[in-house]
Description:
With 153 residues, this protein is an alpha+beta fold. 39% of the residues lie in helices and 25% in strands.
Amino acid sequence: MGRILDAGKRFFTDDEWPHEEISGSTILRTGFKGQNGQFTCYFQEREEHQQMVFYAVLPTQVPEDKRAEVAEYITRANYAMVIGNFEMDYRDGEIRFKTAADVEGTEFPTMFVKNMVYAAVFMMDRYLPGLMMVIYGGMEPAEAVAQVEGDDS
C-alpha cells in the first residue's frame, strides 16, 4: 500500500464515508447515495504509475438493444466535461464515471482526493435522469442531454 491509497483512506475516514479495502488489491470500495440514485464507487491506486483513479459505477447495466443510444448520450455528455468522463463497457453494459490523475511529484493531499471523488459522484448523479430516460423512456440522447444541461444556460 502506498501514499495514494493512504490518501484515499484518510479522505474517506475524515469525510465519514464507510469504505473497505478489497483484499489483495490497492482498491477501496465505498458507496454514494445522491438525489437521483445510488452508486458503488472504487478508489484505485496505480502505484507503479503514480496514478489515482476513482469510479462511480451504476448498479444497472444497459440492455444490449439500448447501448448504441446510451453511447451517443454519454458521448454528448462528455463533450464539454473538463474533469472526468463517462465510460460504457459494450460487453456487459456497465456505465461508470471516472476521474483520474497522475500525481507523480505531488504531495497529493486529501483535498485533492475529495475534489476528484465529489466530481465523479456529482456528475453521475446529475446525468442519471437523462440516462434513464434514454434507456427506459424512449428519449433521444441529444434531447436527454439538453434537458439535463438545461440549467447551465
